[in-house]
Amino acid sequence: MIICVSANPAIDRRLRLGQLHAGAVNRATSVCPLPGGKAAHVAMAAAALGERVTWVGFLGGSTGEECERGLVSLGIPVAVVKTAVETRMNTEIVEADGTVTEVLEPGGHVSEGEVERMLSLCRDLFTEYRGAAQVTLSGSLPPGAPVDFYAQLVRLAHAQGCRVLLDTSGEALRAALRESPDLVKPNRDEAEALTGVPVDGARSAAEAARLLFEAGARGVAISLGAGGMFWQATRDASPLVARPPRVEARSAVGCGDASLAGFAVAHRRGLSGRELVRFAAACGTANCLADAPGMIDAREVERLAPKASVESLDGCG
Question: How many domains, in total, are found in the chain?
Answer without folding.
Answer: 1
